[in-house]
Amino acid sequence: MSPGLLDRSRIVAPAGWSRWLVPPAALSVHLAIGQAYAWSVFKPPLESAMDLSGTQSALPFQLGIVMLGLSAAFGGTFVERNGPRWAMFVSLVCFSSGFLVAALGVATGQFWLVVLGYGGIGGVGLGIGYISPVSTLIKWFPDRPGMATGIAIMGFGGGALIAAPWSSWMLGNFGVDSAGIATTLVVHGIAYAVFMSLGVLLIRVPASDWRPPGQAKAVAKPSKMISTGNVSARNAIRTPQFWCVWIVLCLNVTAGIGILEKAAPMIVDFFADTPTPVAAGAAAGFVALLSLTNMAGRFVWSSTSDLIGRKNIYRVYLGVGALLYLVIALVGHLSMPVFMLAAMGILSFYGGGFATVPAYLKDLFGTYQVGAIHGRLLTAWSVAGVLGPLIVNAVADSQQAAGRTGADLYTTSLFAMIVLLVIGFVANELIRPVNARFHEPEPAAQPAEDKNADAAEGVNR
User: Where is this region: Disordered (predicted)?
Assistant: First the structure.
């Protein structure tokens, strides 16, 4: 029987295939699933149409991020086994059908269907789609791992740049009642299915004997933080390095996602009682602007990490990020440009943290099972996806119940984020090279690179 269209053997690149055709395939999927970052545009209409609190309207987004981490952690071995085309197709089906189920929930007044569709089913599409091109791009660009992961994940950060104004425009035309919201969600589901199919058809994996141009002449810069051995996914989670990186990612994401999920209503609240109030349309534009800096940070900062090292770049993300939060907490309400620039800086570090972490893992654990290790690490995102919005929304709701308004709704949560970033900074300082006892035997590591992770680990799932 000949292999199916989705089979890994059907997408091995022929001789002469340009590796620069692979990034557009990754971007077509990541730009689509990056719509999750524009969820805050849907929050006010949903709260009005379905009588929800800010905490309740965040549930679809929170569950989506939880499912992203869980599906990435548990689906990583299937992605390795079946290849990126299979993974992208599964992502397409889940992500698009999630919108349709959510639309049904809005139309029928069943909020649990919105949570199940967008957060549950769509969240699986987020997770599988997120990890599907990462290890593939690292294999295509072993000479530039930071840049490669920046390209792979840049699209996810930039998805809201398209989705936020597009969603706002559709809600303005279809209406912000239940029927209008449902119609907008249906259009999203269909359009993203078509767009993601481009990546499904274009993606390729390198042949086993492929090498990047000029690799023989390339000389790697020596660094004690770059491993010369390989660590399996099974052994990686037994190392303190894995859990330090887990804490770093979790807290950096918590700090960024707290602003991102609440971005539209936050800027409105901060300047509601000032001479320059922010309208809903301008707030959606702010979400798009944050998405742009999120997207740019993923490429710029991760590429910079190739020059200055992963540990140093995370010092910037966490240390400078804490200072920017302090600026927002103390003087953000006094100046809209200051508020916006600080928020943009935080979101650029947030995006950069995501894009740099696969290369950080590659430095620490080698390329052997970096995709599977990355999937397991994304459980940190699941925790942060609950923690960040919960802190910001719960504090805002409690402050509103106490009669406070404007920037006072967020002061406590902003200082909480500063504390979390400082903890993450300390965790990053504790990261050291992985002990050689966790390394795989050299003969076993090399040929297993393209095999499924379960076989290499000797684990039956």
Answer: 441-461
